[in-house]
Design brief:
- The complex is a heterodimer.
- Chain A is α+β, with helices and mostly antiparallel strands.
- Chain A is about 25% helix and about 25% strand.
- The longest helix of chain A is centred in the middle third of the chain and has 29 residues.
- Chain B folds into two domains: about 110 residues, 2-Layer Sandwich (Gyrase A, domain 2), CATH 3.30.1360; about 80 residues, Alpha-Beta Plaits, CATH 3.30.70.
- In chain B, about 15% of the residues lie in helices and about 35% in strands.
- Chain B is built from four helices and 14 strands.
- The chains are: A alpha+beta, B alpha+beta.
């Protein structure tokens, strides 16, 4: 490690733990605690990447997360922040988007054509001809910057890498520098629960790379954070955004089991304490490897014990630059020149390509060196404050944009460098007062929330509201306004945008900062403006002849820092619902059908055979997803009369009736049956997908329109395993497992309900209904016994060739019988008469949902109608959704359901057609999906098998 | 193998091996000593009550919305304890030892007899999946799947709420066990396996393990 220094006081590396990792295929040594960049720098590497557009060599600029010159490929993971990510043993690190190598990159030829690639080149060149765009796209793809997303098992097999969690701190402090730590401690001492979020791997901010006094203060403050109860510290984490009601998103990285975690925090108060970000200086050659910010130098020296160079020139306009010069001299770097910008010092041009070779100073003197350090100003990262409504104003005294803290919402505060400058003591005092105030405000908010919460939500206050906390004023130090020097240089290091590009943009009319940004893409790269926005504004101001204040800033929006899609997606939680018999279905080869959240057996390999088994003998189908609502009370029949189109007052105990529900617009919303189990006890079934909506529909009527009605609705869909036993032999099969219910056709006729014991299980409900058109019984058994009853039926019916059948066989059978499916044979406009429910709708009822609309429809006889349809080519099964057209070629309807009927040996269909074509015998043309046509004839009945219902009532 | 004479009830959550039969339910017989455990308690008796939120039955039950408390019952069929929860406005859920449905329903219906209002008692034992999450990390684990503030100050022991957990409508009851944070979660039976798997997955970083079912005395 040629550039590794002797141990430094504040170093974060562990010299006892060394290992090697790979850099572009070569092994490199490192210490635990090194970042990738610090380890490579210690090994003498100065070039880490190539720039976005011109593929110029790039080295370290900030030596922090924001460093634009150090985005690397680590294994299958692209765009890793090499100056932030800690290096690990065996890590495979590579440079990105270089060919054939980092040191010799053919795409650097772009720079030779620099004059032909000005700002806006992309927009101007690839606009026309439009038909060439696909070709352009393929070529441009090859120039897309960034790494490669891996596709091997390393990525695919690690589905648990990202997740989320929720948090509800009283106070969330964004920034763990001295003011942030003081704020967190003060808030916690005041009784608040605190979440302290720090972007670096350790708390401390600038104290970490400071002198002995800073390090002593750092140790003391970290100790306080550690020993103060109520502070949750998230390091290597960053606040991404602040939204309404202080919904704050935090990205937490580098966890042991999780690559990244999105923390969704609902903070009562948010304290923004991100410190200040050092700003690069714009001059010719400012992107040559070896030109660094003063904070980068201090980080390398003091945190990682890395010598940034051998011979340095320092341009300083502030204490940080002075301190960097001192640090360099202390570790033996030859500081050949300190240019003090406060007294007119300047650097004009850096010479070199792969590394700094010399620099021309403002005086005209040329100095040979390999390191140029700049300390020319600070940017206040006001993003989170602007997300809370702040509009920052330019302060020429401090040479940075600042926020008006008095104008922030009550639940947002700020402390530290973003609030002002000052000594460490002043910053800590400001942080402490802000923490106390944040805790008080959190308590006030909690008090307000409790006052508006239901009586039972009487959680105890953790902080008692108290006297108003006065926050001391932080001064703003005078700082020279240094943005661009005498030459043009790079403004946006991520996007390779120079100050000359910005001048060009302004000359072409893009004279506002917002337009120049979009035209040049300045501030739109991975650093997202934190390094470059103020310089962009300053250059645009210079180019337009306006002041910086007049030019204003661009808009900061979430996210504050880049976030991976993996973190946003988190763990995939997609609720699924299983029947009690699911494991049986899986063991017996059921092909799953996902219906809403339910997973159902579509078939067991032979749906046609399953349908035939039902017509000829007996089959069982798992219909557990059918919605079931337990209705009790003296006014249930009034409710049923209100929500169904037919009559319910005379439904006797032991009887079952079919009903259809309509919305107030007369549109069919659900159907099902209701059985009366007792005087004031009913069981309602709904469609599988409609159960929740029907429950809400009933509760809506009961709670808002008829609160005086005595009705209680309890969802019991999953209380029962539901099994339909269908086929001519269903009674015979059932008689073998039911011993306390007379199953005879007279004792238990069609559309009746009984309760009894099935296969030894008490509390079962038996309905004599069926969707298949066959003699059938629907069993509802306590769900825990579902598999037992199911297996018993199959066991006892073996000699009857009983067979399990799935949803597909059921669909064939019901279509043969002409039973409609709400949502398939109806749509969002189908009113009851359009669903061929003429006989069911009772317009003479006093009232029911949809009555006025249905009365109108009945009078007008308008709208499409549901009909049975058979194709003239009996072997043809038109696709569902196929259009129907009349003799003039005009669309007059569509096929809603279609299958090949194994019973009839021909296709059967249901269709929606205009009234003029709905009469039996009407002929229409079916447009097929392959472009052909076929003849279709409207049938007399919807049912094409057993229209008289003889089998059903058997 | 069909045992029509002695049907065994099955939870919606597949029992972790070894499987055992307890109180007529197939359950996991696994015993975990992990600090963070997840137990399928679906065999517990679960009876829902609906009545006016401020009527006589509410007073008889003595548990307000969002709270839970233990109550004793003694009817002809049996005596025992229930964990009564105010699960919604005018809604309660009584949890009791397995196979106590008839006794609990009987007790509640008799309790309702004196109330001059509509009271509904429905056995939901088979309709709800019930799991218990126990351990010091329970709150952190739930914070991964539930957006509600479960801090001690906001959601102390003996409180109850209904929210989405892993995207499923779930009733959550804080029911600490000997001072160790513990939560009962119940949802519609059909989502039980999904909820259980989601919690176990979320609990990996906390070392969460499945623990077998032991009938509680409530």
């Amino acid at each position: 490690m040629p550039m590794r220094l002797d141990p430094q006081r504040g170093e974060v590396i562990d010299r006892e733990r060394s290992f090697t990792f790979g850099w572009n295929g070569r092994p490199f040594p490192a210490y635990s605690g090194d970042t990738i960049a610090s380890a490579l720098s210690a090994g003498g590497v100065r070039v880490f990447s190539r720039s976005f557009k011109y593929h110029r060599p790039r080295g370290l600029l900030t030596a922090s997360y924001l460093d634009p010159g150090c985005l690397l490929q680590v294994g299958n993971e692209p765009n890793v922040r090499g100056a932030h990510r800690l290096v690990e043993a065996g890590m495979d690190v590579r440079s990105q988007d270089t060919w054939p190598s980092l040191s010799f990159d053919v795409k650097a030829a772009n720079e030779l054509a620099r004059r032909a690639l000005p700002a806006g080149f992309y927009y101007k060149t690839f606009m026309s001809p439009g038909w060439l765009w696909p070709t352009y796209e393929r070529v441009l793809e090859r120039f897309a910057h960034g790494g490669v997303v891996g596709a091997g098992p390393e990525i695919d097999g690690r589905g648990g890498r990202y997740d989320k969690r929720h948090a509800h701190p009283d106070v969330l402090v964004a920034g763990g520098g001295p003011a942030g730590m003081a704020c967190a401690v003060a808030a916690a001492r005041a009784g608040a629960s605190v979440m302290l979020v720090e972007e670096e791997q350790e708390l401390g901010g600038h104290l970490r790379w400071g002198g002995s006094a800073d390090l002593a203060a750092l140790g003391e403050m970290r100790g306080l954070v550690e020993t103060t109860a109520g502070i949750e510290v998230l390091t290597d984490a960053v606040v991404l955004g602040r939204y309404d009601d202080n919904w704050v998103s935090v990205l937490h990285r580098g966890l042991p089991d999780v690559e990244e975690r999105l923390v969704k925090a609902r903070a009562k108060t948010l304290v923004v304490a991100p410190g200040l970000i050092e700003r690069p200086y714009v001059f010719a050659g400012n992107d040559v490897p070896g030109v660094m910010l003063s904070t980068a130098v201090r980080r390398l020296v003091n945190l990682y014990a890395v010598r940034p160079g051998h011979r340095a020139v320092v341009l300083t306009a502030n204490a940080a630059g002075d301190a960097a010069a001192v640090d360099l001299e202390r570790v033996g770097v030859d500081v050949v020149c300190v240019e003090d910008a406060r007294s007119g010092g300047d650097v004009v041009v850096v010479h070199g390509r792969g590394r700094v070779r010399s620099v021309e100073l403002g005086s005209g003197r040329r100095v040979d060196c390999d390191l140029v350090v700049t300390a020319t100003g600070w940017t206040a990262p006001v993003s989170l404050l602007t997300m809370a409504g702040d509009v920052p104003r330019y302060d020429p005294k401090g040479a940075r944009f600042r926020s008006d803290l008095s104008g922030l919402p009550p639940d947002v505060l700020a402390t530290g460098g973003i609030a002002g400058d000052g000594t460490l003591e002043q910053l800590v005092a400001h942080g402490e007062a802000t923490g106390q105030k944040a805790a008080r405000r959190a308590a006030d908010i909690a008090t307000t929330r409790r006052a508006t919460a239901p009586p039972s939500a009487d959680g105890t206050a953790t902080v008692q509201p108290g006297a108003v906390v006065q926050i001391p004023h932080l001064p703003v130090d005078a700082h020279p306004e240094l943005f661009r020097g005498r030459t043009h240089g790079i403004v946006d290091f991520s996007e390779d945008v120079s100050s000359k590009d910005l001048f060009t943009a302004v000359a072409e009319g893009y004279s506002s900062a917002e337009l120049a940004k979009r035209y040049t893409t300045a501030t739109m790269g991975p650093a997202q403006g934190k390094l470059e926005t103020v310089n962009v504004v300053a250059v645009v101001a210079e180019a337009t002849g306006r002041t910086i204040a007049e030019t204003g800033t661009t808009t900061w929006r979430p996210p504050y820092a880049p976030v991976t899609l993996g973190a946003l997606a988190g763990r995939q939680r997609e609720p699924v619902r299983y029947s009690p018999m699911q494991s049986w279905h899986e063991r017996h080869g059921a092909v799953p059908l996902v219906a809403g959240a339910w997973v159902r057996p579509d078939h067991y390999g032979d749906p046609v055979g399953e349908a035939r088994a039902v017509r000829r003998g007996v089959g069982v189908i798992d219909v557990s997803p059918i919605g079931k609502l337990d209705l009790r009370g003296p006014d249930v029949s009034r409710l049923l009369n209100l929500v169904y189109v037919n009559k319910w007052s005379k439904l006797e105990v032991g009887r079952v009736r079919y009903g259809v529900m309509c919305g107030e617009d007369g549109v069919v919303i659900d159907d099902g049956v209701v059985g009366r189990l007792g005087d004031e006890h009913y069981l309602m079934s709904t469609t599988s997908s409609g159960a929740a909506a029907v429950w809400a529909w009933l509760e809506s009527w009961l709670q808002t329109e008829h609160p005086q009605w005595g009705v209680h609705v309890t969802p019991v869909t999953t209380s029962y395993a539901s099994i339909n036993v269908a086929g001519p032999a269903s009674r015979e099969l059932l008689s073998r497992v039911v011993d306390d219910v007379d199953l005879g056709s007279e004792a238990f006729p069609y559309m009746h309900v009984r309760t009894g014991r099935v296969a030894g299980v008490d509390g079962c409900v038996l309905w004599r209904i069926g969707f298949t058109g066959e003699l059938s019984f629907e069993l509802h058994v306590p769900a825990g016994f579902g598999t037992h009853v199911w297996e018993t039926l199959l066991e006892r019916g073996r000699d009857l060739q009983v067979r399990a059948f799935g949803v597909e066989a059921q669909r064939i059978l019901r279509l043969e019988k002409g039973h409609l499916i709400v949502g398939q044979d109806t749509d969002g406009l189908t009113r009851a008469y359009g669903a061929a429910l003429d006989g069911l709708v009772k317009l003479d009822k006093d009232d029911f949902a949809g009555l006025p609309e249905l009365t109108w429809q009945h009078e007008r006889r308008d709208g499409p109608r549901l009909v049975g349809l058979r194709t003239t080519d009996q072997a043809l099964v038109p696709a569902e959704g196929s259009q129907l057209v009349d003799e003039n070629g005009r669309i007059c309807g569509r096929v809603t359901s279609s299958r090949m009927s194994p019973t009839l040996g021909r296709s059967v269909c249901l269709a929606q057609v205009e009234p003029a074509h709905a009469e039996p015998g009407s002929e229409v043309t079916v447009r097929l999906v392959d472009g052909g046509t076929a003849g279709g004839v409207v049938t007399e009945h919807l049912a094409q098998v057993d229209p008289e219902g003889v089998r059903l009532r058997g | 193998m069909v045992e029509s004479g002695s049907p065994v009830a099955r939870s919606p959550i597949a029992p972790t091996s070894p499987e055992a039969v307890v109180a007529g339910w197939a359950v996991s017989g696994r015993r975990s000593v992990a600090a963070q455990t997840l137990t399928d308690q679906s065999p517990l008796t679960k009876v829902a009550v609906k009545a006016s939120w401020d009527g006589a039955m509410a007073e008889t039950l003595g548990v307000r919305f969002g709270r839970s408390a233990r109550r004793s019952f003694d009817v002809e069929a049996a005596a025992g304890k229930v964990l009564m929860t105010g699960s919604g406005p005018g809604e309660w859920m009584a949890l009791a030892a397995p196979v106590m449905q008839a006794a609990v329903v009987d007790w509640l219906e008799k309790s309702a007899a004196g109330a001059d209002e509509l009271v509904t008692v429905v056995d939901l034992t088979h309709g709800r999946a019930l799991v218990r999450l126990t351990g010091a990390s329970s709150r952190d684990l739930l914070a991964k799947e539930c957006a509600i503030d479960l801090d001690d100050a906001a959601f102390p022991d003996a409180r109850a709420l209904r929210s989405a957990v892993a995207g499923v409508a779930t009733d959550l009851v804080r029911d600490d066990q000997d001072g160790v944070p513990s939560y009962l979660l119940h949802c519609e039976r059909s989502s039980g396996q999904y909820l259980f798997d989601s919690l176990l997955d979320a609990g990996r970083e906390f070392g969460a393990e499945t623990d077998g079912f032991v009938p509680p005395g409530i």
